[in-house]
Amino acid sequence: MSGWLLDYAGRVLLHDDGDGVYRLPGGPPQHRDHDLAASLRRLVLEEAHVTITEAVPLGYQPTIEAGQPRVLASMVGRIGEILPRSGHTPPRRRTRRLLTSLDVAPALLGSRATGTEQAVAAALFAENRWDLRACSPLAFTTYAD
C-alpha cells in the first residue's frame, strides 16, 4: 500500500532514500491494523514521522510478486503534522522528506501512466473533498528536513 499524502499547499510527500530514488510512503498492512487507513497512519508515522488527519482508498492495482498475484492499494490522505525526526531512527532507515507538486511527483517516482493517473485522481479528490488545490502556486518543491 502507498499513500498520496497532501499538505496544506497541495504538495505530496515523497521519500528520498539518499540515492536519488523517490517513493510514496507506505508498506504492507499488519494484522493489528483494523483497516487500510489505520495501516497507512501507522506506516507513515513510523517511516516519516508524519501524522495523517484523513485517509481514504484511491484505487487498487493488480501485480505479481514472487510469482504470486497481489493487489496494491493506493490511498490519498491529508497530512496533519510533520513531526521532528526521532533520535531513535537508525541512520540506515532515515530518509529525506520531500514535498512536491502532484504535477512533478510522477516523474520523480519514475511512474508510468498509472502513477500519473493516480496523481490526477489524488488532485481531483483533494479539490472535491477538502477544497485543496493540488496545483496551486504554493505547491513548490522543498525538503521538510
Description:
With about 140 residues, this protein is an alpha+beta fold. It has one domain (about 1-145): Nucleoside Triphosphate Pyrophosphohydrolase (Alpha-Beta Complex), CATH 3.90.79. Helices cover about 25% and strands about 35% of the residues. The chain contains three helices and seven strands. The chain has helices at about 35-50, 105-110, 115-130; strands spanning about 1-5, 10-15, 20-25, 50-65, 70-80, 95-100, 140-145. It is globular, with a radius of gyration of 15 Å. The chain starts with a strand and ends with a strand.
Any key phrases for this structure?
145 residues, alpha+beta, Nucleoside Triphosphate Pyrophosphohydrolase, 4-stranded antiparallel β-sheet, 3-stranded mixed β-sheet, 3 helices, 7 strands, globular
